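QUALITY CONTROL LOG
STEP: pairwise intake check
CHECKER ROLE: data steward
CRITERIA: each record must contain a sequence immediately followed by its structure tokens, with no blank fields

ENTRY 1 OF 2
RESULT FIELD BELOW
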Amino acid sequence: MTALDTSGFDRLFQALADPYRRAFVERLSRGPASVSELAEPADVQLPAVLKHLRVLEDSGIVVSDKAGRTRTYRMRPDAFAPVRSWIDQRQSEMAAAFDRLAVLMAETPEEKDH
């Protein structure tokens, strides 16, 4: 991921930075829920819940459907793929650095204690 294509990635992290939005994500990871179901345990007014859900939707974490007067939100199956990919890349780079260190240490003779 280059600096030029990180805007969606940044939005995803910004969306998850808020504890209310993380709570909604945790709830939605167990299955779809209506706005009222999501708002019930939250300690915020319905307009604030809707704003939080809009941020989650704009970041690509959730999608919504409307049937009649009920709007239902659900997780996108691939919502965290960019984060997973970024973490996997960092782990690969760190593993390669440790492998290089191990080779260097194996090639360096040990000093004897006197």
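ENTRY 2 OF 2
RESULT FIELD BELOW
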Amino acid sequence: MPEGPSIILMKENLLQFVGQKVTEASGNAKFDKEPFVGQSLLEIRTFGKQTYLVFEKAAIRIHLLMFGSYSIDEQTKPDKSLRLALLFSTGGMYFYTCSVKSVEMEHLYSIDWEADVLSDRWNPAKTKKKLKSNPGMMVCDALMDQNIFSGVGNIIKNEVLFRIGVQPESLLGSLPDKKLKELIAEARNYSFDFLEWKREFTLKKHWLVHTKTVCPICGLKLIRKQTGLGKRRSFYCEKDQKLYD
């Protein structure tokens, strides 16, 4: 599943169409696309793993899910996987194998934009309150909770927990205040590192534990385990990451 930084890069690639009118809309997404024809694309907003194409009267929400993708100006996938195509005078954008929905403008006002780790509106104090209110939650679940850390995915989760020396099954209520602050800070820091490395096409070279087998600090074999309510893959070192339970 693409994480927040990858969605930022997608937004940057789509910005060329902002200010242009839709000339044609198609695809098998189950909403009426005709009203968007003739409307101008006013802006593109991202919230974690979601992208909002904002038009004059409504918006289209794109979520790439696990295997979604997009292309610009040419279709590279079979038509049966095409969820949405929007054509403009200078080209088009195509979205495949993803969730595409039309949402009312009011929906945009209901989003907690301060939860997005890559946003200028990111609010660490608010995030800390959310974490404090869930003392029984595992830290791996907290990092993956899009209402707390919007944009964080499994790669970021594993790398952040290694950076701060905390095992994924640690409980939020057991974390010292210092570790809680580190968790919040590194979730944002690593997300921006991820974005920079993604631009450089060097992301995987910087992974320390994600999909790895040996701890880069002590050399011991890493634990690979499905953790948390979501049973997502975690990679961690029992020696260099502490369990707070």
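INTAKE CHECK: passed for both entries
DESCRIPTIVE NOTE, ENTRY 2: The beta strands are 24-26, 43-47, 50-54, 59-63, 69-72, 82-88, 91-96, 99-103, 223-227, 232-236.
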